[in-house]
Amino acid sequence: MTKAVVAIILLASAALMLIVTVGGWSKLQGLKGVNLVWAVLYVVLAFYIWARWARGMLPMAAALGILLLILAVIAGTGLAGTSWFDRSSSGFGSAHSLFGGGGLSANVLGTVTVLLIPVQALLIFFAMLGFKQGWNVEMEVPRDEAERRRGQHGSGRSREPATA
Question: Is the confidence at residue 141, as pLDDT, over 80?
Fold first, then answer.
């Protein structure tokens, strides 16, 4: 269940990043290419976590989530100067999209950027929860212990032959 949640959060994060990147292309100060690569990387991580059950990808997802959380807090709140919300006042031009048309409004871009903050917090939490679960850890137990455990889980199978 955790791997599905992490994969869905990664895909949602990639979608939110692409919305901000494509919708505000002309007004992004930097990291345009990095945003695109980051979104692709999130999709690749989601694939490896979901389809391949690659537990080693979880700390990488959490680390990227921490970095994106920091960037989203700075961009969403305007800690480094101007936030997206400040760009809706007079004196600021509207954003143009990656494809040359009119981009998203500053308020929409600000809202999507702020939405990245809780999404990244959830990504960090669930990625570390999944890493703690130890998906790939197998424990060797003696045969009689394994049979006893199988009986406790109610598999319904018994090694004893049926008597008449």
Answer: no
